[in-house]
Write a structure and sequence with these properties.
By secondary structure, this protein is α/β, with parallel strands linked by helices. 47% of the residues lie in helices and 9% in strands. The chain contains 16 helices and 8 strands. It has helices spanning 3-11, 34-40, 55-65, 69-82, 91-101, 107-115, 147-150, 176-192, 215-219, 229-249, 272-277, 293-302, 313-316, 318-331, 346-369, 375-394; strands at 16-21, 118-123, 139-144, 197-200, 254-257, 283-286, 306-309, 337-338. Strands 1-2-3-4-5-6-7-8 form an 8-stranded parallel sheet, with helices on both faces. It starts with a helix and ends with a helix. The structure holds zinc ion (ZN). Zinc ion (ZN) is lined by residues 20, 22, 342.
């Protein structure tokens, strides 16, 4: 058997810890259908699904998007799970099989535990940050801290509607010292309630080059509805430095979304000052900074307190992910990589897993065939990335 096939079957025999996910609560998996899956998963970022009973429209949809990684792997997952090729004449039957499967309210979870082989999922779900979705045996929550960037105003929610100061003992804070102290208490309370990590996805709202550590500058935005854009950024910078500090003190890995987002200065090297000045913080950088991978290579090589999570990369571009994994391993070490499916619907979780299995088996087999290491080392890397590294990092 070719090296890739051997490694793939090894990977498929392994249980997995998914280190980053947004899985939906139980009630949101009710009345599932093929149309809902296509309109509620990553493929919908590219286009809304066509009328599934219109064969010409479905063919046009397939032809246009089949090369896109989101579509490639979601179609593969649907074909695998429901036993039918994704072609127009099968979609009514595929839809019927999906509806039937979802009559069982535990089905969406079994796809994660049985089909995806997940032992644990580090999950982050808005607008209920820190929730384990009522399934503590499977979901270990990561506490999303984005609300603290909006909390310069008492009644300004983060984009999903959550109010930072709803977590504060005194929501009427008057100084930055008070604000940061309330934030600290809120984060420590989330840790006490079972959160295993902190998460910041502020790259969807602002650049991630955090520079300002001056409290006086930050104070200009606090309780000021007329704060300028720069004052709000200065406030957010101070918040980010404090989150990194608290993460170290509480010994919680800090997950940061890098790359894409607003695409405005979201490349990972913007984090340089934050990483340099918080050497006790475990920075768990998500997505490799796609597509700005070079920044991640530099950070991995330079800083031993930086981890790279491969989540989303195989689903964004399968080809880029293979390249990223090889170079990142060459610039890093076996103990600082993890992977999460980074999805909210179970079919997308299966698709993301299929993509990762392909990427991992391809990249590692190419390195074996190239003489970089032997098969035993490739298996060691699989074990570390899919299981042992997350168990250590998140203390699961
Ligand atoms: Zn995510």
């Amino acid at each position: 058997m070719a090296t890739k096939a051997v490694l793939l079957s090894y990977i498929q025999s392994k249980r997995i810890i998914s280190t980053h996910n947004h899985h939906l609560p139980d009630h949101m998996h009710k009345d599932m259908s093929l149309h809902r899956i296509l309109s509620g998963s990553y493929v919908n970022w590219m286009t809304t699904p066509p009328d599934l009973s219109d064969a010409d429209a479905v063919w046009a949809y397939i032809r246009r998007f089949q090369a896109n990684s989101f579509f490639r792997w979601l179609f593969a997952a649907l074909e695998d799970l429901y036993g039918l090729p994704f072609v127009p004449e099968n979609l009514a039957e595929m839809d019927a099989r999906i509806r039937k499967a979802y009559e069982d309210s535990g089905y969406h979870l079994r796809l994660l535990t049985d089909r995806c082989r997940f032992d644990k999922v580090v999950n982050e779900r808005q607008p209920d940050p820190g929730s384990n979705l009522g399934h503590p045996e499977l979901f270990a929550p990561s506490f999303r801290c984005d609300c603290f960037f909006s909390g310069y105003l008492k009644d300004k929610p983060e984009p999903n509607g959550f109010l930072a100061r709803s977590l504060f003992e005194n929501p009427d804070v008057a100084t930055m010292e008070e604000y940061l102290s309330e934030m600290r208490q809120a984060i420590l309370a989330k840790k006490a309630a079972g959160c295993v990590a902190l998460k910041v996805a502020i790259a969807y709202e602002r650049p991630i080059n955090f520079e300002n550590t001056d409290l006086e500058k930050a104070q200009k935005a606090l309780n000021n509805p007329h704060a300028t854009e720069q004052e709000v950024l200065d406030f957010g910078d101070v918040v980010m430095f404090e989150i990194a500090k608290i993460a170290a003190e509480a010994d919680l890995p800090l997950q940061i979304h890098t790359g894409m987002g607003q695409c405005k200065a979201t490349n990972p090297i913007g984090l340089l000052k934050l990483i340099e000045t918080n050497r006790e913080t475990k920075f768990h950088l998500l997505h490799g900074g796609f597509p700005w991978f070079e920044d991640s290579y530099a950070l991995l090589l330079q800083f031993r307190h930086v981890w790279s999570d491969l989540c989303w990369i195989p689903y964004l571009s399968t080809t880029a992910a293979k390249q990223y994994l090889k170079i990142a391993l060459e610039a890093g070490d076996a103990h600082r990589f993890t992977w999460g499916c980074d999805t909210w619907l179970s079919e997308d979780s299966v698709g993301a897993l299929l993509a990762m299995e392909d990427v991992l088996s391809s990249a590692l087999s190419e390195m074996v065939d190239d003489g970089a290491f032997d098969m035993a080392q490739a298996e060691y890397l699989v074990d570390r990335i899919l299981y042992d590294n997350p168990v250590e990092l998140f203390k699961l």
